[in-house]
Amino acid sequence: MIFKALACDYDGTLASHDLIGPEALRALGKAGDAGLRLVLVTGRTFFEITRVCERLDLFDAVVAENGAVLYYPLEGLIRDQAPPPPLRLLAELDRRGIYYEHGHVIVGTGRSDEPRVREALVAAGVSLDLVYNRGALMLLPAGITKGTGVAQVIRALGLSFHDVLALGDAENDLPLFEVCGWCACPSNAFDGLQARADWVFPGTDGEAIACALEDSILPERLSVARSPRHRIAVGWAVGSAEPVTIPERGVNVLIQGDPLSGKSWMVGGLIERLLGRRYSVCVIDPEGDYRVLRRLAGVTWTAIRDRRSMERTLGRFERDPAACVVADLSELAHGDKVECIAAGLAAIRSLRHRFGLPHWVILDEAHYSLHRGGVAPEALGLEDKGFCLASYKGSWLSDKVVEAMDVFVLARTTAREELDFLRARLAAFPVDGESAVSVLPELARGEFVLVEADAGGPPRLWSFTATPRETPHVRHLTKYADQRVGPDRAFLFRRRDGRVVAMAESLNEFREAAACVEEEVLAHHCRRGDVSRWVEHVFSDGILATLLRKVEARWARGEIGDLARAVTAPLELRYGP
What is the pLDDT of residue 473? Predict the structure, then answer.
């Protein structure tokens, strides 16, 4: 469940005529049983709310007096957030015959008395803010609002504001809406509040909220991905420069493209924007592409040595609801990486069930661990959403993983099997998938195609250029030279009679073998164009394939003396010695 807490206004929202009705009480009980933290928010004085609300025990915290008093029922703890009203102000109100109530901090009166209240403030030499609540007028020290009170409670409960749903109905609930990630109101709410809300529920008062809780919120039927307020810009549309955005919550994203297509740049930019919005993010980085993010404030970067260090690193999410953790696995052997990724994903699922954190899980090189024989999709909790997978081999991902993706961000893709994979997958979207796929081989670096299936709304298909990044992208090219593709995709060095004399599962293994095998073996493959074809089809590296194709052509023309050196030189140029 995306929501971990509800911050509920009292009068006009939960209660009518002073009391919370039986339907609303039942719904609040179900919310508490489902694990939601409940915060009661009211403009009433602390004394009044304890008098009229008989079930304060349902709530983890009470924000009374429009944010000026915090009460934690289980601990019996009361905290005033400002001093009491000056006695000389109360004397001036009495002198003018203005009826008022005062609490620990607040002074409440009628809105019709505003002119005389202002006179009393001037006469008393007191500066207080005037806050409107339908027909009521509240006097409070500057800066005290429902929002300030709820923000403090959110911190005290160890929650992220992104996981809190605010429910209100009046003008003084606007500050409450501002400090919570999501907001909703009944249909009789103040017009300005309805304009600000993510959802407007039919009905009025407690009955409307009860129905919303039982019919929409608890069954998780709210379309959080469709809220226009909760989107992150990823670029600008080609031609129109219109902002291109994706949902902040409620979706899974696949970012795919060839090596050196800008895929990792896009992922890094998305992480930066999530961090800027104070989302909790876990980056699982198998190849060290995102260590540059440690330059940003709030980012914890850790070199993972084993499963235990992975679990310790993820423990940060228990202490910080806005944590951004980069788990760098680049120093591990391939088998150890996969083991740590599997353990990390299992730990993350447990953390999400307990704390709702991290909000986003970024898994680079997802084909390492989420292939058909890898981590079971059921173990990930993909239904919880908030996964961003990056891969140049989407076709290797298990079918259930691919089916769980809601948004595709596609960079240049040239490998035929990857284009066929995307064509087949996008056929399930209500968009012209063929048009999207057909342009992929021609995209320049930094250009992308976005395909988003918006349930209940029009499909989205965009060609766009990426937004700039705060941190430079430092690519560790050498990682591709060590990437093993498995025996079924290995390069088999054969003599002309077909006998295999060596095998290479990575580019570095190819380089080592090419330096050792007989020249006639290399000549046989170069005459057939086998080397460039293998690099292009298996590694999707068109640049290296082009360099090798030139070597093969020069060999055919008799322009090369040392073939082994000529074949390995482009690999050194591309990926380093």
Answer: 56
Sign (positive/negative) of CA torsion 155, 157, 161, 166?
negative
Alpha-carbon span 449 to 462, nearest angstrom:
6
Residue 165 φ then ψ, to 5°: -105, 120
Q: Are 481 and 541 in contact (CB under 8 A)?
A: no
Which of helix, strand or coil describes residue 535? helix
Sort residue 363 into left (φ over 0), alpha (ψ -120 to 50) or beta.
beta
Amino acid residing at 262 = G
* Cβ-contact 364, 286 below 8 angstroms: yes
Q: How far separated are the first and last CA of the chain, in Å rounded? A: 49
Residues present in the chain in total:
577
HEC profile of 23-34: HHHHHHHHHHHC
Q: What is the pTM of this model?
A: 0.79
Q: Which segments of 253-333 does DSSP mark as H helices, in order?
A: 263-276, 307-314
| 556: its two tokens | 């055919």
As a whole number, mean pLDDT of residues 82-108 equals 95
Give the Cα separation of 262 and 326 in Å (integer): 20
Judge contact between 88 and 125, C-beta under 8 A: yes
Domains and CATH numbers, the chain: 5-81+144-222 (3.40.50.1000), 231-475 (3.40.50.300), 480-575 (no CATH)
Overall average pLDDT of the 522-536 stretch: 93
Express each pLDDT in 273-325 by its tens digit. Answer: 999 999 999 999 998 888 889 889 999 999 999 999 999 999 999 999 999 99
Cα 207 from Cα 431, distance rounded (Å) = 40
Whose CA is closest to 287, among 482, 508, 418?
482
Number of neighbours of residue 238 by Cβ within 10 angstroms = 17
Structure tokens at 213: 């809780």
**Contact status, residue 159 vs residue 37, Cβ threshold 8 Å:** yes
Residue 260 pLDDT: 75
* pLDDT band (50, 70, 90) for residue 559: confident
Look up residue 285 and give its amino acid. D
**Distances in Å between the alpha carbon of 169 and those of 41, 174, 189, 251, 573?**
12, 9, 4, 29, 65
Residue type for position 24: A
563: Cβ–Cβ under 8 A, 6 or more apart, which residues?
519, 522, 523, 526, 555
Residue 457: is its pLDDT beyond 50?
A: no
